[in-house]
Amino acid sequence: MSKTIAINAGSSSLKWQLYQMPEETVLAKGIIERIGLKDSIVTVKFGEEKATQTLDIADHVQAVTILLEDLTKHGIISDFSEITGVGHRVVAGGEIFKDSVVIDDQVLAQIEELSALAPLHNPANAAGIRAFKNILPEVTSVAVFDTAFHTTMPEVAYRYPIANKYYTDYQVRKYGAHGTSHYYVSREAAKLLNKPLEEVKVITAHIGNGISITAVDGGKSVDTSMGFTPLAGPMMGTRSGDIDPAIIPYLIEHDPELKDAADVINVLNKQSGILGIAEVSSDMRDVEDGLLAGEPKCTLAFNMLVNRLQKFIGQYFAVLNGADALVFTAGIGENSTLVREAVVKGLSWFGMEINPEKNVRGAEGDISTSDSRVKVLVIPTDEELVIARDVERLK
Ligand code: AMP
């Protein structure tokens, strides 16, 4: 029996979930927000209880100290020695990390070197790793990479049609992201379809604030919509997704507020997508309220999102030459009956039909009609569980 903690460290936040392994029971979970700012918010949930406090947390080391103190304070553990493994989500593993690994000094240095590929994420992930190593130096820590699942993509899919030297000299290629989520739901899909994983072809649609669609053949990622960075693919909550790159220099030349490429990329990452079009919010719930009230910008945002999702799903039907199922997951995919209905309606030619009685709030599993040739599945993702399982496997 052991207790394993799954960590997802962002630049100013640290999300965690504590498991009893191998039972896979969630003992507690929480989030520390606004690290490095005034009034950091610490939330811990365990059993039916939820504790929140506000205090100033200077850095990740202090955040980890408070997290561990909270675990003992609330009686979730009696001693730090009960924690036998820590799993860290790391966004970019480049071409080096094809699977999760036990973190030693060399691995940590490589994660930091890979920051060029995920400048917003890898330094924060490394800070989280370092903080735990400081406080629990004897405990095995494992890095689980968002990109690892996509390292099976063939070269035709991961290469961009730009001169070879940009790949060989600068590692410019598609890496993808959300790999842990696509890995998890593709395996759950095979179970639901009652078929061996090796024989299943699925299109997994992770539709949350970030959105990525993946073609999974026999359990392996063969193509995915995120690219060199997580900015690519269908439009997302605040990210534009794919646009013509010639827009970037054009905007620098014409909009005096945009001085350089970094400014434009910032706009494409933070002020675009659903937020850019609907204006009211990046949150799909607000956009759906606007849609139902007939508000034109929300209606356009909703329709554009559906259109982009359909086009990517259609592409992956072609990549896979047919599929057994389309899987919806993440915040919007798991909860939005409207998005699921609209997306599948326009793809009926591919042999998909939703049963409206099954496509309800809280639906899980198969929501298609019995004669739908391609099944439509709703599978809640569980990236933390994959992290905890990888710690068990490797420690
Ligand atoms: P995630 O990034 O996976 O946490 O997903 C966040 C997104 O899920 C946000 O856009 C939310 O608005 C959306 N979401 C959560 N619940 C619902 C719901 N009931 N209906 C529509 N969208 C939802």
Automatic annotation (TrEMBL):
Keywords: ATP-binding, Cytoplasm, Kinase, Magnesium, Metal-binding, Nucleotide-binding, Transferase. InterPro entries: Ac/propionate_kinase, Aliphatic_acid_kin_short-chain, Aliphatic_acid_kinase_CS, ATPase_NBD. Mg(2+). Can also accept Mn(2+). PROSITE patterns: ACETATE_KINASE_1, ACETATE_KINASE_2. GO terms for molecular function: kinase activity. Pathway: Metabolic intermediate biosynthesis; acetyl-CoA biosynthesis; acetyl-CoA from acetate: step 1/2. Pfam families: Acetate_kinase (PF00871). The record marks H178, R239 as: Transition state stabilizer. Signal peptide: none annotated. Mg(2+) binds at N8, E383. It catalyses: acetate + ATP = acetyl phosphate + ADP. ATP binds at K15, H206, I207, G208, N209, G210, D283, M284, R285, G331, I332, G333, E334, N335. It is found in: Cytoplasm. Its main location: cytoplasm. Homodimer. NCBIfam families: ackA. HAMAP family: Acetate_kinase (MF_00020). This is Acetate kinase.
